[in-house]
Amino acid sequence: MRMTDRTIELDCGKLTPTFPQRLAAGLAPLTSLFRGFRNRMDINALHDLSDAQLRDIGLSRADLTSAFLASTFFEDPSEHLTRSARNRWRLSLFRSYEE
C-alpha cells in the first residue's frame, strides 16, 4: 500500500474565541460610534479655519456642510471629506496635465 492511498482526516473545527477576542468583538460597535463622534467634533472644528487654509488641505466650506448632510448621526462624515479632497486633488492633477 502506498502513502498516497491513505488519507488522514483531521478535525479542524472552529476554535472558540477567547474572552479578550469576545470582548473586543463586543466593544467594536461602541468604538466605531465613539470614533465617528470624535471625527464629527474634529470636522466641526474645521469651520474655524479660513477658506485659504481649507483650500490648502483640499476642502471647501461646501464640503464641510455636505459631509454633515450626507451622513447620519451614526455614520462617520470624515469618509465623505476624504473622498472630496481626493477628487479635488485628482481634478487639479488632470488640469495641470492639460496645460
What is the structure about, briefly put?
With 99 residues, this protein is an all-alpha fold. The chain has helices spanning 19-45, 51-56, 61-70, 78-98.
Mean pLDDT: 82
Global morphology? elongated
The number of helices is 4
As residue ranges, the low-confidence spans are none
Strand percentage, roughly?
Answer: under 5%
- C-alpha termini separation: 75 Å
Biggest beta-sheet profile: none
How would you name the oligomeric state of the polypeptide chains in this document? single chain
Share of residues in helices: 55-70%
Order of helices and strands: HHHH
Q: Tell me how many strands there are.
A: 0
Q: What's the Cα radius of gyration?
A: 24 Å
InterPro entries: YjiS-like (IPR009506)
Protein name: DUF1127 domain-containing protein
Domain YjiS-like: 38-64
Pfam family, one: YjiS-like
